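Chapter review: from sequence to fold.
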Amino acid sequence: MNFHNHVLKKSIKIIRRRVRLIFVFVLLALLAINAFRFFQIASAQNQIKVQTLSPPAPFRIGERLTYNISFEKFNNAAYAEIYAVSRGKLGEKDAVEIHSKIKTSELVSAAFYLLDETRTTYASSDSGLPLYTRKTSNTGVSPKETVENFLVNPTAYNDLLTLVYQVRNANGAGTFSLQEDGKIYNVVFQNTIGKRLKTAAGEFETSFSTVQSDFFTEKGITNLSINFSTDAARIPVLIQFKTAKGDFRAEIASVQMIEPEVAAEPSPILIQTPRPQLTPKPIVTPTPYIDNQMLAKELPFELGETLEYQVSTNGLTVCLVTLQAKERKQFLGQDSLLLTATVVGTDSPQPIFKLNDTIQAQVNPESLAPQKIELKLNGALGAFNQQIIFDQRAGSATNNKGTQLEIPVGTHSILSLAYAVRSFNLKPSKDPLNPVNDTRVAVFLDTQAYVFTLRPSNADLINLQGERVSAQLISITTGNPNIDQYNLRLWLSNDGRRLPLRLMFGNYQADLVSEKQILPK
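The token string follows.
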């Protein structure tokens, strides 16, 4: 394993662990509730009875809450829920079974964060502390499960799920213990007056709590706050925090009370109240696939967008290159967007770029995650010809020789990155004492993945085809000294389209000279 692979894998492992813990806390803090008042209302309407335990373990059996998490301009970045499923026996101990789940959308998973995790905690109905926990991550080739058993040696500390219920029992204020990944933390909640909030689950008068802990500091979380409802339910209506990648906002989407039934046969671990039986859904005939559907409105470009660039060196034109979001069709049975970069004209007598040199990339139309990239080059660049098939869930890339290479999940190809970068949060730092606000993304080049670092600058004016245009400079380093010696830089327009206006690589410069839309046939 070479140095770059070692550093890359270590960096990706740290990022995954931090992202997973960030999102899990978002889920759990969001769902920290005391929904007694809500249940009283639901009970009057639906005649549902809820098992309510006394403090210090105020679990509401059958209580399920769901949340929508937004990230920057992405309104549906992730989905989260928590569910107090049942009460029964875990060995000889009275226990409550709690489930949680969180999953990021495909667009956010590929471009920023990938998370698909479930957690089950069996908590003591007396102390509220964990007796047994099981976490399952579905982001790799196969599910990865982590289990902690405190039945023999009881713990004096909360895990993330039981912390939720301790916080809600204290009305969102106080100091609480937390043990995660073998480390112990104090978590401090401070409460003050909030405001009235309108959500998909209703309108709430809220109080405002700030949250502080070394746990969050280590995970890169700042400005963490939660708005709790001021009624007896103490529902965390809204949670907000900042990371180096951008701002997160999570809002309650629904509050449900699911009526438990009479206990059935005991399970191997827990005699539990079974969940209600759901009416089977009718079998629906799949909708036929339609070619060339419109792209998601969250993307800053449309199907058919065609951008033409003039490539020059030392003031002399070398060639014209066209970038195109060409068509949306199925590729290997998957919905796919075809992106192309093609040399459409050459002016040099012995050009390094030949007419009809082409790079083609198949990508997910929503997340822009690469499915395939193929380089068809002539002349001196022919040595770089290759075809790569990406398996994002398996974390692998397979070349045309059948060699399988390990890559981080969410790795881009060079062409998919050219489009995905337009959706990235590339805001320069607002802190003059800490001006760096880098974005890092894994990109596959030649035979391996490199971690590209994108460093944004403030808006400036550039001269483009004789006009002064507002643009943002993005400096790019790849970790490969053979590439970085050419000082790779990109200028994006400052409007909503974030057009790539200029790219510089050593003595070569590519300037946007025309844009149009050519709809696929």
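Two observations follow directly from the output. Helices lie at 3-30, 36-46, 106-111, 160-169, 214-218, 414-420, 481-484. The radius of gyration is 26 Å.
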